[in-house]
Task: inverse folding
């Protein structure tokens, strides 16, 4: 069934018209859907209307009234601390989904908020999502047509999530050309800790150590001078937005702590090997790293198939 | 005085016509110098002649006979274990310089080899160098005109190095448009450990931890699937050439051990902060990382000036 039919021909609501929300608005309109978008500031609404990011755009939460599906396309901090007026404005019968990069905390947060707002039954229609498409851009200028085409769209429902709600969000993802995958929230967050949140701290630690340079200002000056593209790449996310790094640590703390413990242990091992001049063992580890990396550089269809299996098991 | 005059109008020799040697050959010929290049394999010589990388190119070490300056533009492993036939072929009166990325070990290695070959007096004319220009390319196709223009060319002589030899290598660097800087070998190697060798191990450790994923195959599969450009960038050098990583660890072991100890301690601190939910302190560290990074992204003239000062002190 088409997304429109699954929505019973009601509009799709989008809260937030940044990179994800704006791109979604463009693609959904192109697919013939009516899109109503709620933004925070009037200036954003004006520009979003100029860019045609949705059919109706404004700052009045009443805009969402008729929507059968609402996509919460907000930054993670606002998803985790939603405006009570937004909660009030969500149609009680709508399916809800989000786009946040941490899922376990978010699912419990929204279940709690919805229950607290006397919408306990809507909690089963909240489908946590993570469309994995990004560019370096953000804000109202960032949205672009075709952003999701061929990209993965992970969803992390749990056994309490209503199957019809999952089917509706899947139709949304597939309408914009994304590949739909399911996994358990805890798995998502463990994987995110390893490939996203730990690298932030690993890179930040590299910067701290190079900047301090054993408290020797001459070495520090020379290190800054000699640093080339290798150091720049290795520290890019570590030297990125500190608010986002902090938020990921706060909201994915247990998984991040596991990842940090494993990382500390691995660094200790490398230190021991260098100290003991255990060159064959160090060589083997460096060779393994070279062998391991390519699998992290592209979406592997075989891995994706295993994900679907693992989710079936988890349910 | 010009490079040619400093060489007493003798040819410049280049050993190896990869990225650095080939680029140097092109630029030196363009500056009107006679360049003789020694390569390892005849097939390389044929292609290098086609590309015009030097005036005379061959596999016979006798080619270097008349040279007043010889640039050893070989990979680090071959610089650290030079072919005895190459040593024999170096003109006894020539100034020697190299392009290796580790300097302390290399300087002692060459002093030892030269002394062992009965060329003790030539040891003072060996000027360790590190032209900091690179592209992703290597081999006989990689050399390009103008590679060194505006780039730093570090040299790491010590008080036993002859000032005339330093002046000659400086003229070489400036002839190809590089900025000339001096620093003590131990400083160079400490800085290289921080910005080049430690990031290799830090990235390799990230790959190991993400690949293992707490021995959970589902998390590992999902991590590979979810990894995006942030993980790719952070692990680029860690998943690079394992022979090079091993060689850097072997030849810069004391500085790398210091860097690893500081890094382990920093990771322990971050782990403690996350564990204790010490969010303001973690936030401060992430903000520092963001503030620190830009200084590592460009050659800072003020830092360079301080380098020259620090070298004067060191001498």
Result:
């Amino acid at each position: 069934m088409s997304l429109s039919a699954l929505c019973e021909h009601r509009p799709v609501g989008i809260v937030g018209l940044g990179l994800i929300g704006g791109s979604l608005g463009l693609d959904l309109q192109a697919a013939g859907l009516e899109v109503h978008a709620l933004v925070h500031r009037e200036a954003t609404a004006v520009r979003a209307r100029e860019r045609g990011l949705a059919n109706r755009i404004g700052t009045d939460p009443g805009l969402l009234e008729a929507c059968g599906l609402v996509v919460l396309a907000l930054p993670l901090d606002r998803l985790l601390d939603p405006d009570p007026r937004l909660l009030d404005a969500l149609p009680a019968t709508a399916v809800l989904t989000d786009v946040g990069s941490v899922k376990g905390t978010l699912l419990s947060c929204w279940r709690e908020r919805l229950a607290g707002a006397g919408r306990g039954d809507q909690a089963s229609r909240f489908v946590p999502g993570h469309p994995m498409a990004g560019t370096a851009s953000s804000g109202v200028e960032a949205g672009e047509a075709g952003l999701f085409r061929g990209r993965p769209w992970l969803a992390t429902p749990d056994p309490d999530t209503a199957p019809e709600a999952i089917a509706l969000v899947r139709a949304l993802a597939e309408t914009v050309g994304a590949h739909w995958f399911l996994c358990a929230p805890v798995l998502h967050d463990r994987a995110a800790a390893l490939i996203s949140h730990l690298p932030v701290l690993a890179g930040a630690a590299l910067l701290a150590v190079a900047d301090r340079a054993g408290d020797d200002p001459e070495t520090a000056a020379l290190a800054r001078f000699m640093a080339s593209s290798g150091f720049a790449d290795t520290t890019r996310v570590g030297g990125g937005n500190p608010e986002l790094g902090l938020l990921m640590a706060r909201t994915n703390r247990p998984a991040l702590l596991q990842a940090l413990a494993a990382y500390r242990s691995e660094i200790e091992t490398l230190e021991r090997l260098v100290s003991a001049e255990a060159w064959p063992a160090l060589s083997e580890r460096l060779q393994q790293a070279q062998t391991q990396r390519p699998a992290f550089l592209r979406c592997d269809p075989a891995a994706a198939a295993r994900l679907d299996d693992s989710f079936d098991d988890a349910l």
